[in-house]
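[SOLVED] Predicted holo structure with pyridoxal-5'-phosphate

Edit: marking solved, answer below. Original request kept for reference. I posted the sequence and ligand SMILES and asked for the 3D complex as C-alpha cells.
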Amino acid sequence: MDKNTITVTSPLLPERAEFEQMLKEIWDSKWITNNGQFHKQLEKALCEYLKVPYISLFTNGTLPLLTALQALRITGEVITTPYSFVATTHSIWWNGCKPVFVDIEEATCGIDPDCIEAAITPHTTAIMPVHCYGKPCDMERIQAIADKYGLKVIYDAAHAFGVEVNGKSVLEQGDMATLSFHATKVYNTLEGGALVIHDAETKKRIDYLKNFGFAGETEVVAPGINSKMDEVRAAYGLLNLKQVDEAIEKRHQVAVRYRSALRNVKGVRFFDDMPGVRHNYSYFPVFINAEEYGMTRDELYFKMKEQGVLGRRYFYPLISTFSTYRGLPSASPENLPVATRVANEVICLPMHHALSDEDINRILELIVK
Ligand SMILES: *Cc1c(COP(=O)(O)O)cnc(C)c1O
C-alpha cells in the first residue's frame, strides 16, 4: 500500500521491547497456552478495567458469541439486527437457530425496541442486539421486553470495549455480553475476544465449554469447543491494556475535529456524544443524504479512495441481503426500512489513535465543500 494512504484503522501495538521481554518469560516457563500466568493476569486486569465481575478469554470475538448461545441453550428463533458484522448472525446460524431480523433506530443504529415485540413468536428464545459503533442500545427497554416474554439477551458488544453509562459498564447488561479483541478494534490482542459473565458458576461452565468441555483430567461435561486464548496473546493484551486509555483519548480528539468541521456541512449527519456515556470512539460513521449533499455515498466513497483515503462502508450490505439469509421472511427490505436506508448512507471515516493533524485535514478537505 502507498505510504500516503490513510487507512480506516490502525492497530494499537505495544512497545516491542516490552513484548519481547514477556516472550522471553513465556519461553522460559514453557507454558504457552491452557490458562497460563498471563491468561490469568489478563482476565483479572480486564475485570478491573471493564468493571465487571467475571470474564472468560477467547481466541477471537466470534467464538464467545457461539459459546454464549450454547451455554444458555438457545434454540428456535433469535431476534437480531441486520446492521452489524456478519459474525453476529452467523453465530445464530451455527447454533442451528433461525435469525429473525428487526429494524434499527436511526439515533443509535442499534436494534429498535419498538420493532421487537411484533417479531416474537412461540419459537423465540433470545434477543441478540449489537452496541453498534459502541453506542449503547436502549438496554432498559430491551430487558423489559425480554423479561415480559421470558427471553434471554446476549449483547454482541464487540464495539463496546470500555463503554459505560452513568459509570456502569454496558457489559453488565443482559445475560451475557461478548467482546472482540481483533486488530481493528479499539483494544486488540492480535486476535482475541471475551465473554462477560455475571456469576462464578456460569464462568466455570464457559471455561469448560471453551476447552472441549473438560471439567477435569478425565471428565467431559459438555460438547465443548477449543477457543482458548494462548499466552502470547494474553501477554500482548496486558501491554496494550496499559495504553488503551491514551488511545481512546486520541480517538476522542479526532472525533472533536471531525465534528467541528462537519457540523455545518449540508447532507452529512454524524453522532454526537450521548449524555452520561463514556464513549470509546471506536468508529466515526457519517451518513450522506445524497440529495442535500449533492453527491451519493458511493460517489464520495470512491472519490476518497482515489485520493488515498480509505473509509469503510460499515455496515453495507446488510447481513440480511447475503445469500444464506435473504430468503428469510424477516430479511425483506420492507421489514427493514431504516437499516436499508442507513446502509446506503454510511461511510466510516478513518478513526484511530495514530491519525495526524495533516491526515485529518486531508480527509476533511475531501468531504467539506
Ligand atoms: C469484529 C466483530 C465481531 C467478530 O470478532 P472477531 O474477533 O473478528 O471474530 C463480531 N461482532 C461484531 C459486531 C464485530 O464488529
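OP edit: The chain has a mean pLDDT of 97. Thanks to everyone who chimed in.
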